[in-house]
Amino acid sequence: MFINKSDYRTTILKIFIVLMIVPLFAQSDEKYNATIFETGLYAKDLHFDWKPLNRKLDIHSADIREINFRFSDLDLNYIGNDKKKTASIKFSGPNLSLQELTVRSSIHSENWVTKEKIARLEKRESIPKLSIESIASGIDLYMIDHNTLPGNINELAVKQYLDMSIPPLDDYSWSYTLDLPEQIIAKPTHINIKPSAHAIYYDWQTRSFQLDPEKDSLYNVPITDWEYIFEIEKISQVFSSNIDLEISEDKSEFDLKMKRGQFKISKTSFSATPGKQLDDRSSLSLPEFLLEANDLVLNGSFSGTPIIHRGKGKFRIRNFEIKIPKGIKEEPEIDAMLKTLGIWNNSLMIRLIEFDINLINEFTGDMGFRFQTPFLKISVDGDFSLRQTDSIPKLVLHDTEVRIHPISLGMRKWLREWEQKNGKDFDRQGATIVLKINGPIENPIIQGY
Q1: What's the whole-number mean pLDDT along residues 83-96?
Q2: N- to C-terminal Cα distance for the chain?
Q3: Which of 49, 266, 311, 372 could hold 351 in an S-S bridge, CB 3.0 to 4.6 Å?
Q4: In this predicted model, which residue has the larger pLDDT, 167 or 242?
Q5: Nearest 5 degrees, angle CA 232-CA 237-CA 239?
């Protein structure tokens, strides 16, 4: 059956209205309107639990104290004739309220804390092991030429059987000793990230590395029972919008006006505990997560990219905290990073991440960004211009100021070392670094750098 372009667009509009729970069957030159005060879904004290197939020791459960999903104040109007169809839809929603969500899982699986410790230990040992293998190859060549074993590493280097200036032998965090014909020994030096690490022994007769007692103890840790707990105290979502649709023979357009839109999550937490090892519990907590849009106006066609004419938006995370398992925190790389940030326990706190945007019109706007932690504060304020002609908008920064205030001693030291290494000094106001930025967001220009 042949359907012309006008009939096809009319069908789309009618389907859309039906999906808004209004069974309208429009004819040309007719008008329809409908109102719904409130509609939705409500449930209380929900509980689910389940056991996965072929996982006898695993069990999961979920509880929700209350969930409420609703639309309200719906006002729908339709006018249609042979040449043009228009619809106006005003509504509040979808509004969502969810209270006290709890998901629990008991899973019999590998101890990922131990697995991570093994991976980091193997990475630290990779350089000395590669170096020992290079030394062994040099010894083999030396024996071919001299029919005897070398006395020490220096002899191999002087006679050019080893090049100590190229990787991996140029890493001076390890020293090497020949005890032939029994073994080659690698020991950590005082500049090693873990000077107390065990020596590495290479058996010359079997041409193999001796088993590290520390690694052996990690490999012997059995599979454990993990307890995972995910909780959200409250999720709320509120929208108030107005949609206008117009479909004619030569165009199909829509307008969207959102007076207010907000999505908020309160008091989210997650924890993972291996067996009864509370010291190796990892956890996340997020008291507040917020997405908000106000006075948003956009329009477009069904076949093109919509244009945003104005709007205000906000994104905020407050007091986000990560607690690191003791076994991971004690790893030398992690411990060094935390000390640089001025963190002496196993808790990483982000007090505030906040982004505000104000689109004044479809071409210009201003923005602000805040990042606050116990070790660093960053603020960004500036204007921007916007091109919405392409599928991906082009954003250009104007007169944007970035202020970086290092709080911890370790962070200040790191920034000073960066300046010395790169031969540049940041502009400062007191202890605060001040940067001026302009240009495209994907390739900004920092004034003076």
Answers
A1: 76
A2: 66
A3: 372
A4: 167
A5: 175
Assess whether pLDDT exceeds 80 at residue 230: yes
| Contact predicate 232/270, CB 8 Å | no
- The label of the residue with tokens 């939705």 reads 40
pLDDT score for 159: 92
Alpha carbon 216 to its chain's center: 34
Contact call for residues 220 and 212 (beta carbons, < 8 A):
no
What the block records as the tokens of 48 is 């689910």
Please give the backbone phi and psi of residue 204, each rounded to the nearest 5 degrees, phi first.
-70, -30
- What separation in angstroms does the CA of 340 have from each of 190, 375, 376, 416? 19, 9, 11, 13
Higher pLDDT, 80 or 357: 357
Instruction: Answer whether 239's CB lies under 8 Å from 92's CB.
Output: yes
Percentage of the chain lying above the pLDDT 70 cut:
91
Read off the pTM.
Answer: 0.77
**Do 327 and 279 meet the contact criterion of CB atoms below 8 Å apart?**
yes
> Is residue 357 within 8 Å of residue 313, measured between CB atoms?
yes
Burial class (CB in 10 A: 0-12, 13-18, 19+), 77: middle
Three-class secondary structure assignment of 212-245: CHHHHHHHCCCCEEEEEEEEEEEEEEEEEEEEEE
DSSP lists the bridge partners of residue 402 as: 380, 435
Residue by residue, DSSP assigns 398-444 as: EEEEEEEEE-SHHHHHHHHHHHHHHT----EETTEEEEEEEEETTS-
Alpha helices in 95-205 (DSSP H): 112-146, 153-158
What would the two tokens of residue 434 be? 């001040």
Q: Are 68 and 100 in contact (CB under 8 A)?
A: no
